[in-house]
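Memo to structure team: turn this sequence into structure tokens by end of day. - J.P.
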Amino acid sequence: MATRFKITQSREELIATGGIAMVGALLNDNRGLASVDKMTTDRIKKGWISNSGIIKSVVGLFTLGRSDFADISMFRDELSFRLALDQERVPSEETLRQRLDLIAKLNSRQTLLDYAMRDLLRKVESFGTVKIGKHKLIPLDIDVAALLNPDCRKEGIARTYHKIDGYAPIFAYLGSEGYMLANELRIGSQHSENGAVEFLRRCLEQVKALKIDLRQIVVRVDSGHDDRKFIKALDEYGVKFIIKRNLRGEPRERYLELGKQYGAKQLSREGKNVWHYSWGNIPVDKSDELFDAEEESMRGTMTMVVAATERQTHAKTGEVFLFPEIEIDSWWTNIDCTEEECIAGYHDHGTSEQFHSELKTDMNIEKLPSGKFATNALILNIAALAFNCLRIMGQRFLNKPQLLHREYKVARRRLRSVMQDLIYIACKVVKHAGYIWLSFGRGNPHYRIFKDLYARC
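Reply from structure team:
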């Protein structure tokens, strides 16, 4: 006979979100957030809840995967949420909405939390490197990712490159482990390259402030940033880069012909031919036909890598094409490496799509809650703090295999897994001997690692 449980309510303080304590430990000593408290708006000079308290409340919600203003009401009477984030009180839904609108006035350039971001990222033990040629480099992946909001009338919503209404924010991730360095909310119809140079400079200044040698950085971007001003800015900072080229109206057949003459043929299936070659393989008189004088003048500072593909048959059916399909992929780079190493280095840039997915699905940031563009821009900036808190927790989790209940054969934990294992962790809140204790169940498999990680925050 199946067991029938009796349902009752205890007077004890039991919570299912003990991991908020670790989020608070990562943020409560943040000097960047403390500096925001010194700023005032035209309406609120001083309140019961500080500016940093409002921001940390939103961070707390995001680390729980909650992005609606109304969700804060669930934690107003929860002692551990308030104490973990070092607050006098938890704001109401109305207060949270109004105060974010006011703080957003201080964030017109979307850089209000850059100092706080740097202070948080200083807690990172290793950002992770990629090997390209003989170089071990820290990747800085910059990419635009649409936040789709169909049938929505929020300020700044416009038709994105997905042909669906939404925003088109730009993101920067530092390291192979995927720490969000910066983001910027933009209207949906804004082109990738519009404002990209300024965003690049902001990111590289953040890297310098983190005391990372720019010569150890490789910037990877897609063809939307194949722009001379962007490349010039990269050259000014002396960083390495791989940029997918935008062929625009250039003749594909000519690239294929050069590949057949000067390229190295790659192993591929029957009916498909692939050649790799770089600028250095092509005689000057031949490349003159493809490039203008300014591009030719860059030969000494960077090279062009090309992958020319000719498909004569269909991959699945084997049907022979009447006219071969020609596909040309090419990149600008200033890294001393082979064509294959450059191409592999760029393909690894696709990992940043996974980081976008973690933000949009795991943290539920696809649809921003406010109707005001400035407030949503601030909320997206705050989401970056929550993103990095979860990332730090996840990577420190993997760095202590001796404390884990099982083996993890991964280099990076997805944020959803971090939330399930370290944020949504049940415990009992106990007041005793002048202390607040979090008491875990005796069978909790993550107790040892949680205790260790909390002590290190």
